[in-house]
Amino acid sequence: MRKKLKKLIIIGGGQFGILVSKIVQKSKEFNIIGFIDNDEKKFGKKINNIKVLGNDKKLKKFQKKKICVAIAIGDIKKRKLLIKKLSNNFIFPKIIADTCKIDESVKIGKGTIITNHSIILNHTKIGKFCLIGSANKILHNVSISNNCLVGGGSVIGSNVKIKPNVYIGVGAIFASKKITIGNDVYVCSASGVFGNIKSHSKVIGNPARSIPFFRK
Predict the structure, then answer these.
(1) 56: nearest Cα among 85, 77, 29, 27
(2) pTM of this prediction?
(3) pLDDT tens digits for 188-204?
(4) How far is residue 213's CA from residue 182's CA, in Å, rounded to a whole number?
(5) What digits encode the pLDDT tens for the residues 7-31?
(6) How far is CA 179 from CA 27, 46, 115, 184, 187, in A?
(7) CA–CA gap between residue 175 and residue 86 (Å, rounded)
(8) What pLDDT, on the 0 to 100 scale, is given for residue 64?
(9) CA nearest 113: which of 102, 99, 97, 125?
(10) Can you say whether the dihedral through the CA atoms of 5, 12, 16, 80 is positive or negative?
(11) What distance in Å separates the CA atoms of residue 111 and residue 130, rounded to the nearest whole number?
């Protein structure tokens, strides 16, 4: 008897959404029933042969129906709002590309997405609703809290602790040492992080230095 696939909605019809849809299609675990995207120009059209159902308001139709949702957008603030709004009404599966190499001791929270060719070493913890881009290397004993995004090609050294709502741009490098990245931090692409970063900060450069940043 053929296994019945779980129904899945992907929030975000941009590049992250397309990437996630391809990973899901390859896994054959879910039946993708559509994208949710706030760009009206996309409504009714197809992305990767999947229909765009409409904006966030369309999600009300699917509440309490055991529908799975994948949040595939890169804006940390929008992600935070969606998580708060949707958490009690939908199922958030872990989605992990089959090209990843993840040690069996790694703990991963619900709603987290890990894309192609990422490597995660032993005794690392990744929280809920994170988005880990392609070809990342996350070494041992790393702690990444909820709703963090790690851009592709980044390297997070061992013993690094990352608090909630942190955005890490592509190609960032974190030294292997006991350093803490505060909550609501924005790390620009290609930055080199060698020490603690205070909460509500934005850093850039190698070595990373603080620049003005205003996020509520």
Answers:
(1) 85
(2) 0.94
(3) 999 999 999 999 999 99
(4) 14
(5) 999 999 999 999 999 999 999 999 9
(6) 36, 44, 25, 16, 14
(7) 35
(8) 76
(9) 97
(10) negative
(11) 7
Amino acid at 175: A
Alpha-carbon distance of 23 to 64, in angstroms, equals 25
Which residues are CB-contacts of 79 (< 8 A; sequence separation ≥ 6)?
71, 73, 129, 131, 147, 149
Q: What is the DSSP string of 112-137?
A: -EE-TT-EE-TT-EE-TT-EE-TT-E
Record the tokens describing residue 28, joined without a space. Answer: 């054959």
8 Å CB contact between 183 and 201: no
Of 174, 185, 190, nearest to 211 (Cα)?
A: 185
Give the C-alpha distances (Å, rounded to integers) separating 205 from 123, 188, 192: 29, 8, 6
Taking the CA atoms of the chain, what radius of gyration do you get in angstroms? 17
- Report d(CA 150, CA 147) in Å as an integer: 10
Measure Cα distances from 15 to 19, 74, 199 in Å.
6, 10, 28
Question: 15: Cβ–Cβ under 8 A, 6 or more apart, which residues?
Answer: none
Nearest to 144 by CA among 113, 117, 170, 116: 113
Question: What residues are paired with 36 via a beta bridge?
Answer: 11, 54
Q: Token digits for 210?
A: 């603080």
Token output for 44: 């009714």
Instruction: Please provide residue 138's backbone torsions phi and psi, each rounded to the nearest 5 degrees.
Output: -115, 115
